[in-house]
Design a protein that fits this description.
The protein is mainly α. It has 20 helices and no strands. It is a multi-pass membrane protein.
């Protein structure tokens, strides 16, 4: 495998060690992501075979609902990623370990409180009413929700290990974890179709437990081998490390909340304005066109921490060259999105047959959404890498405030149907097409002042 990587790198004329490392992990990520895509697409017909359309819609809503609570890490995951990379870049191992310990113990404390609060809420909540579904599912949801919240609380802590791996230039780790999770989930659902009766409760438990087990295993492996000297220890928890991570993390935290409101509330909005069944075509069309995002993110992900390192070392020419290449690649991705939209009727027929009907206009709207977001994505990753995200934060926060009322307005007053929900999101993120490239230009040419340099 190493010989193959070296031959490909030589053919592409890749010389710098940093770019060689990025290209290696891009290729690995492509393999993992390809496997994940295949597994996830095979999972859909199996899931529709095991669950009813209503149950599947409820699970999609529930997944989005729980994802809202990912902001409880208060941005510490991304803060750790940047600060750990900066400390390693200048050889400050003491600070690197301090950042790891501080992040782990902070998130553990937060997650413990989150789980206790979720138990209290679950006891009093009428989940069938919240998800706008039949009362028959209420008993299953009452048992399922505490399990989901418990697994999610643990997941918030154990997924910090991926921030460490990524900050340490091991960029393909997330792709590897995603692939193992997708493959395990596919196998589990296949077994459910053979051994069990349709049950949202059983399905939800399996899907919640699998990623937790995988990441717990990775933590045990990492901290007993490669990262043994960074094992979280309460004596390395220090206020200055928390302030350093949190100072950057709070901006990521606000961005996370905004992203969740804009991108994860759509399913909930649809189920309230229409029905849980209406969530299914929306989710499947999003999953289909998001293939383009998966492909692009494979290439983009390594650049976050690599840009952090390069910016810390003032290697600006490498950054400029990398950004030019990423911008060119984004144009190819746009062409790919157009291709996906054009062949979507045949793709849907091959994927799940006539089980779900997806209007062409919905797929087109999804295509426009991904064209917009992937066009500014390279600049987004650059800003995240250098930690200059104040403008980013304001832009997403304003978009989040406008997204829900705008969605309701477009659906109710323009009769746009489910398409109105994704159109509202497009309108909210469109300003970033202008703002992010301008800020990148100012920063890389050392002309950034005021909000552009924060």
């Amino acid at each position: 495998m190493k010989k193959i990587f070296k031959k490909i790198q030589a053919f592409l004329g890749i010389e710098s060690d940093r770019t060689k490392n990025i290209s290696k992990h891009v290729l690995l990520s492509a393999i993992y992501k390809g496997g994940s895509i295949v597994a996830n697409f095979m999972l859909v017909p199996l899931t529709l075979k095991f669950l009813s359309t209503e149950d599947y819609g409820v699970w999609m809503i529930l997944s989005s609902f729980v994802a809202w609570f990912s902001f409880f890490d208060i941005g510490l995951g991304n803060g750790l990623r940047n600060k750990y990379a900066e400390a390693k870049a200048v050889g400050d191992m003491k600070s690197a370990r301090g950042y790891v310990s501080t992040a782990y113990f902070t998130i553990t404390a937060i997650c413990s409180l989150l789980f206790i609060a979720s138990l209290v809420v679950s006891y009093f909540a009428d989940w069938a009413k919240i998800f706008n579904t039949s009362e028959d599912l209420n008993s299953q949801l009452n048992y399922l929700m505490p399990v989901v919240f418990a697994c999610f609380s643990i997941l918030l802590t154990v997924k910090l290990i991926t921030s460490i791996y990524t900050a340490d230039q091991n960029h393909s780790i997330q792709g590897k974890i995603t692939f193992i999770t997708a493959l395990s989930s596919l196998l589990a659902v296949w077994l459910l179709t053979k051994l069990a009766l349709s049950s949202l409760l059983l399905f939800g438990i399996v899907f919640s437990v699998i990623p937790v087990l995988i990441l717990v295993g990775l933590n045990l492996y990492a901290f007993s081998n490669k990262y043994k000297k960074y094992v979280p220890n309460i004596k390395f928890f220090k206020k200055e490390y928390f302030n350093s991570i949190f100072g950057l993390g709070i901006n990521f935290f606000i961005i996370q909340i905004a992203v969740i409101v804009m991108f994860s509330t759509d399913s909930f909005i649809i189920t309230q304005l229409f029905s849980p069944e209406a969530v299914v075509p929306y989710t499947l069309s999003h999953k289909y066109v998001s293939i383009s995002s998966m492909v692009f993110v494979i290439l983009l992900t390594p650049f976050w921490s690599s840009i952090t390192e390069a910016y810390t070392k003032k290697e600006y020419e490498w950054i400029k060259k990398s950004m030019r290449n990423l911008t060119k690649f984004s144009l190819l991705i746009i062409v790919f999105i157009v291709f996906l939209v054009l062949i979507s009727p045949w793709s849907y027929q091959f994927w799940f047959g006539n089980k779900v009907e997806i209007p062409m206009i919905l797929t087109i709207c999804m295509g426009v959404f991904f064209v917009v977001t992937l066009s500014y994505a390279p600049f987004n990753f650059f800003l995240n890498g250098v930690g200059k995200i104040k403008l980013h934060m304001y832009s997403f926060a304003i978009g989040a405030i406008l997204n829900i009322p705008l969605s309701v307005f477009l659906v109710k007053y323009f009769n746009l149907g489910v398409e109105g929900v994704i159109l509202a999101t497009i309108i909210c993120v469109a300003p970033n097409l202008v703002l992010f490239p301008i800020q990148y230009s100012k920063l890389i040419n050392k002309r950034a002042k005021g909000i552009w340099n924060k």
